[in-house]
Write a structure and sequence with these properties.
- The structure is a single chain.
- With about 220 residues, the protein is an alpha/beta fold.
- The protein has one domain: Glutaconate Coenzyme A-transferase, CATH 3.40.1080.10.
- The strands form two sheets. It has a ten-stranded mixed beta sheet with strand order 4-3-2-1-5-8-10-11-12-13. The chain has a three-stranded mixed beta sheet with strand order 7-6-9, with no helix packed on it.
Length: about 220
């Protein structure tokens, strides 16, 4: 199965030349380090940055240059900084081609829960609500199961929803799946992971058609 960098590396294959891409907190932030060098991509962060680069090397961090998750980042030549109103205007105006988010749960109909666990203190939903309401191409980066071994790909989400019917594709440590009207369609499996293992780890309806290839990572 894949580690977090493996998930991000596979998602990086979905990033196309000329894309404007929003990276959520967690695994998605790793994608900026792994995109092909022969394409031009603009990474956007909702705190007001366009043109994010990879994470800085140790000792080269600038505490004034951070992403929405308050991690220090680098910027590429031509990068720009602006206020949150402008940033969310870009998002709500559908000027972002691809949104990559983490999630605690995804339902087979494309619902996503990624902001709150009841009983635990959180600061708020942040930009996630705007992103899922406005984005037309959402890929989720997540572990297939939680720490207790329970599936995070469900028939219905049990946690408070962030968005309804919005997720298009999911990349986990076990598989690549597409959300279709019938459920989770299995597209690829992680190296050395069997279809049976993926089936056992998926509570929602899993659609398996033909031979499922190993993902190229």
């Amino acid at each position: 199965m894949l580690d977090k960098n493996g998930i991000a590396r596979r998602i990086a294959q979905e990033v196309k030349d000329g894309y404007y891409v929003n990276l959520g907190i967690g695994i998605p932030t790793l994608v900026a380090n792994l995109v092909r060098e022969d394409i031009e991509v603009e990474f956007q962060s909702e705190n007001g940055v366009l043109g994010m680069g990879p994470f800085p090397f140790d000792g080269e961090e600038d505490a004034d240059i951070i992403n929405a998750g308050k991690q220090t980042i680098t910027t590429l030549p031509g990068a720009s900084f602006f206020d949150s109103a402008t940033s969310f205007g870009m998002i709500r105006g559908k000027h972002v081609h691809l949104t990559i988010l983490g999630a605690m749960e995804v339902a087979e109909n494309g619902d996503i829960a990624n902001w709150k666990i009841p009983g635990k203190m959180v600061k708020g939903m942040g930009g996630a609500m705007d992103l899922v309401a406005s984005a037309e191409n959402i890929i989720v980066a997540m572990m297939h199961t939680n720490k207790a071994g329970q599936s995070k790909l469900l028939k219905r989400c049990t946690l408070p929803l962030t968005g309804v019917g919005c997720v298009k594709k999911i990349v986990t440590n076990l598989a690549v799946l597409e959300v279709v009207p019938q459920g989770f369609k299995l597209l690829e499996r992680a190296p050395n992971v069997s279809v049976e293992e993926i089936q056992a780890a998926t509570e929602g309806h899993l659609i398996i058609q033909g031979d499922i290839p190993e993902m190229l990572n």
